[in-house]
Amino acid sequence: MSIVDKGKEVAQGIAQSVMMKAVELAPGALLPGGRPDPLIRRQHGHIGKPVSRVDGPLKVRGAAPFAAEIALDGMVYAALAYSTIAKGRIVTLDTGAAEAAPGVVLVMTHRNAPRLNPLPRFLSGDKAAAGDDSPVMQDDRVRWNGEPIALVLAETQEQADHARSLIRVTYAEEPAATSLPTAALPTADGCEVGTFMGEPLRAVVGDADAALAAAPHKVEAVFTTPGHNHNALELHGATLVWRGDELFVHDATQAVAHTAWSMAQVFGLEETQVHVSSPFVGGGFGAKGLWQHQILAAAAARLAGRPVRIALSREGVYRIVGGRSQTEQRVALGADADGRLTAIIHRGVTPKTRHSPMPEPFILPTQSAYAAKTFALEVQTCYLDMVANTFMRAPGEAVGTVALECAMDELAEQLGMDPIELRILNEPEKDPLSGRPFSSRNIVAAYRAGAQRFGWDRRNPVPRSRREGDWLVGMGCATATYPYHRMPGGAARITLDAAGHARIDVAAHEMGMGTATTHTQVAADRLGLPLEAVTVRYGDSSLPGVILAGGSQQTASVGLSVMMAHQELVGELLKLAGNDSPLAGLAADEVECTDAGLRKQDEPGRFESYASILARSGRSELVVEGKAPMPLETMHWSMHSHGAMFCEVRVNAVTGETRVSRFLGSFDCGRILNPKTAASQFRGGIIMGLGLALMEETQFDGRNGRIMNRNLSDYHLPVHLDVPEIEVIWTDIPDPHAPMGARGIGEIGITGTGAAVANAIHNATGRRVREFPITLDKLL
Ligand code: MOS
């Protein structure tokens, strides 16, 4: 099926899902006919085993090709020149010296770039992939400090970089908006309520301000978080070639189908004329989508008639790839004498750009965290002239939980309550805003298990009461939360061959998280095969499905697609088996897949192997495709992954240096499909959260809108010495409403972590630092 048809189906599906809001689903129903996923509760098999990565040997041998390592015959190398003003017009652009430099094949500017259609931006459609929809080198305007103004192609990377340094430009500067009004002035020019996924970032229940005023216990505080830049190990890059009117892109992306469709829109092509391949991605946290570099490289490749490799430098990623923008959040909590919340207020301000689809939606975690009588939640957004803000691991929750969970700690202190007990007291019975039942919520169990394992009872609630030499020691906790998502468009193909080997084809992504491994396990369990008899093929736009590796939803999307394809497979196998088989006359729901064949449930004698069925019917292989049904589960249940985070810090009383000495994440994310890859996801998220708490900060020069610390020596990330032993445990309680019983795990680790660290620092020092990151100067 073409991508056009896939897209139409997705669009129809969305329309249908809206109409079907009132449809009742049976508990656990995921399959047509109301049957639950049989794998949700199966206890024996490959699911739940710590299987090592199937792509691990390739990677450690250096044999896994990444996008900017693919070599094409006749390839030339690209270098980008970036604007140095935030807003205005290019007046002169002298490219003569660059054109005359050794090895130069092309210098492309807005004067000679081909005319291009606008980039379809994220959330503007089901397959839009661009984080920013600014015109790409189409005019003399400058929209942010760092926007590409010229691209050089040369025979070597060094020649391209040198020629780029010879370009001379002058600008007519215009006044730019480069600093954020404070939350005290949310109605500044150009400020408005932000939106996320088409919904306004605003929720009001009752009169929270009045409830706060009347509350016997209240806390109110303003928290600020800075911008964060994306720093995946693999820099953004692509190697691409035109063959006639077809474009072949080796990309580093978490959205192959989206990128193919979006590039086709830009170049006025049919979707089938763009082929995107991305089998290995060296980390993607929301920003490995479509940015200007792939478009510029493809445009230049067409002008030059040569294949092009574009590999952004670390500076290049900071200049043209968006990150998380800064927030200023005011949280006020009111509680009655017993500690029950009567008001939750979470309001604040964050920038957005004219060309970005999303502001940082920091109120999202507050929507389903606690029971309260009243709520007032709102994200105000103001336009700035800067690089687009975009998705970055747990957009919203990562920094929203910082404010909410620090405020809960402050309230617990005021009430003289244990912060865990305060949270448990305010556990909601159903989703406090939507009123939907939770699909599965065992956060209390996660807290109890985590507290015991961490030794929470050894915490002295009196701040600054434990000192070892110069080191003040303290413990803190916070709640982690991230929603379950499943986006429309999932599809998968199964090819079963006569030798009993199954290949799963799905347009999914392996960015290091273990997708290929986990789905090998899931498919093997579904099909009753050993792991060696299953191959998962992914990372190519020609494969079925429109599946984003984002929103922690890829596993649900792929898993349900494979489940649907498997249903087809069983039906086809029974047809092929016919009347000469021990399976004769059986319906699909009477058989199970086991031992590389089909067997009647509860009657082991009625069995025939796949190989035998195919051989008797003279088939060399059987190919089936399945499409995931519309994601109705989230219309019926409030579905979230949960966690309880525990941190121990040591803060030096002399230097203010903070050392995280122990960390434990206790998660409730449904069934854990592979404990080895899951533990890495949890730990990776927590490590990113430690950076958010203590060091990560995009230094944005408010005078000219330029990011100053655009490299890894000035932008601090946690390195090995910053990361303590991190323990991760989980409830492993299957979610009856999620495919395989599993909710997402990719993003939750970064949530709650910042607050757990800040709360531990308070317990150690008595200091509340509300301005993140908590660097040593703020503790002196
Ligand atoms: Mo994630 S921010 O959805 O890659």
Describe the structure.
It is a single chain. This protein is an alpha+beta fold. The protein starts with a helix and ends in a 15-residue tail after the last helix. It binds dioxothiomolybdenum(VI) ion. Dioxothiomolybdenum(VI) ion binds at residues 254, 284-286, 391-393, 395, 550-551, 747.
Question: What labels describe this entry?
Answer:
single chain, binds dioxothiomolybdenum(VI) ion, 780 residues, alpha+beta, 32 strands, 6-stranded mixed β-sheet, 17 helices, globular
List segments where confidence is low: pLDDT < 50 over at least 5 consecutive residues. Answer: 1-24
Strand content: 15-25%
- Radius of gyration equals 27 Å
Distance between the termini: 63 Å
The main sheet comes to: 7 strands, mixed
Alpha-beta content class: alpha+beta
Mean pLDDT: 94
Q: What's the helical proportion of residues?
A: 10-25%
- Which ligands occur here? dioxothiomolybdenum(VI) ion
Instruction: Compute the number of helices.
Output: 17
The strand count comes to 32
How would you sum up the global shape? globular
Order of neighbouring strands in the sheet with most strands: 3-5-1-15-12-13-14
